[in-house]
Amino acid sequence: MRGEGRSRTLELRQRLLLVIFVVLTPHTSHLTPDVEAAHIEYHEGLPVVFLEGSPYELGRQHGELLKDSIQQAVGQILGYFRRYLKIPLIGPLAANWWLDRPWAHARPFIPNDYLEELRGLAEGSGVPLRELWRIHAIPDRTYACSSFAAWGKATRDGRLIHTRNLDWNIEVGIQRYATVFVVRPQGKHAFVNVGWAGFIGVLTGINEQRASIGQIGAETADLSYRGLPMVFLMRRILEEAQDVEDAMRIVQDSPRTVGVNYVVADAKARRAVAIETTRKSVAVFEADDPKEHAVSYAKPIVDCVFRADTAMDATIRERQIASGGDPTMPGLEPPTGSAYQVRYLGQAAGILAHYGKLNAKRAIKIAQAIAPSSNVQSVIFAWPEAWIANAHETTRAAHTTYHRLDLEQLFKARTSPEEFEVRSMKFEVSSSNFELPTLN
Q1: What pTM does this model have?
Q2: Contact 344, 146 (CB under 8 A)
Q3: Rounded CA gap, 408 and 258, in Å?
Q4: 121 CB-near residues (< 8 Å, 6+ apart)
Q5: Are 286 and 259 in contact (CB under 8 A)?
Q6: Which CATH class is domain 144-181+208-427?
Q7: Per-residue pLDDT at 5 exceeds 70
Q8: How far apart are CA 347 and CA 153, in angstroms?
Q9: d(CA 124, CA 117)
Q10: Distance of CA 152 to CAs 211, 251, 379, 381, Å?
Q11: pLDDT tens digits for range 67-97
């Protein structure tokens, strides 16, 4: 009898342990084996997705973890463009052609790793591969944004602060699918991609070497889609660059497509540059660059670089359509429009107003002051912190909540969510009492 009692007690303990194990074990049985290493953390509602592996595995993980969001995002974005082109009977076909044509021209220049990742993304999410190609063709077709980096004498503690507003089209609704990705590609640098479900390109990001990047679309007559799309060029920088010099080399050596101004920063070296590009031309500007002092409409500042879409390089400016440029007319036109008047001059005025005292909170105030109604994303990199805001419905991103992420923790976290302590904070800055001074 005693033996039977002990046996029953042991059996009950085993069953209890089994129940506890099942309850506490992460439920990944619906995921394929290569996806089980990936996981999602939520920071005050902001999804942070951890991906690791080969190109195909990265895509498959991304697709299976965010399947519903990706299907909705792709339908939402492409649906907008198909409705936007109001051509009777052939509107959807015209929208498809508008995106298929640049992708077909660019595809031979896109590294196979990214094509494989898109294949994995399609298979994991159930979204047709051609629809994902179309999503990734959109950024080279659109223009806007602003970015600045400041350090040394300009900031309160000398550390580098890199601010980036992404101004696109708030009506599309892409902000509903905002996602932060922590990506560990095999054999390359890990990086944080501040993006959206279903999108593997980079428009805003930072890598484990503390190199960060933002871009500004700058419409030009010197363009071709037969090259590496900007979003994949930016991803290459995060995966391969250890510093600003590496980033400059990648931009200069890549087959470029459209007009883009980049702000690339290195928090370790406390250095940043503005890189102005078209298909054929590249011009690099350092902080307080003597070349900018020779430009009548430029506002160079010590220990700062900043850009909207206006080029400072004469060769690039002469081919610009952005900021009131006219490539058909001889000479350089004075820049006009909100991109120059608000985004460029607004950044200059804000930096000067807070010079020597810049920190994340003051950088957010500048971002708020220059954010147009199309502002879908606003990000401040101040290593080891990142402050991330996304538009909410029709409220511009810079006027919503900024979420603080610990970048060092994100890069330390691997595939075990149990070891990752979630540290996030809400950061709201009122802009009602902040106005930029006029800068002439």
Answers
A1: 0.88
A2: yes
A3: 34
A4: 59, 60, 62, 63, 70, 127, 132, 198, 200
A5: no
A6: alpha beta
A7: no
A8: 17
A9: 10
A10: 17, 26, 20, 15
A11: 999 999 999 999 998 887 666 656 678 889 9
